[in-house]
Design brief:
Helices cover 25% and strands 26% of the residues. The protein is of the alpha+beta class and 107 residues long. The longest helix is centred in the last third of the chain and has 10 residues, at 68-77. It comes from Chitinophaga costaii.
């Protein structure tokens, strides 16, 4: 199992988890859901208390990944399998993102 903090403008909004069977869960932090001034991180992931489950990486996070030759270079330099989308997300989405959402590995 691997997990990552999902940050919105530097504040922890929730946790993305990849389970050992390859499925994914995204769960907003309770404090984020309870605070009406905090937005959803995506239109496809509205703010709710219950977790989201998926058999593949949620499209919102998948769309943060590099493609083509950029993906090849990042995977080669970081010794990642090009199908390890979660590993790729953890590698590049800590700093190199468009928008307010970043991803931070949970140690």
């Amino acid at each position: 199992m691997r997990a990552a903090k999902i940050l919105f403008k530097g504040q922890e909004a929730g946790v993305l988890t990849q389970h050992d069977d390859g499925t994914f869960t995204f769960q907003y932090n309770a404090s984020w859901v309870e605070d009406s001034s905090k937005p959803s991180i995506s239109l496809t992931l509205p703010k709710i208390a219950s977790p989201y489950h998926s058999s593949y990486l949620f499209p919102f996070f998948y769309n943060m990944l590099p493609e083509g030759s950029n993906k090849q270079v990042v995977c080669q330099l970081n010794h990642l399998d090009k199908t390890d989308y979660f590993g790729l997300l953890l590698t590049i989405a800590q700093t190199d993102t468009i928008g307010a959402v970043t991803v931070s590995k949970i140690e």
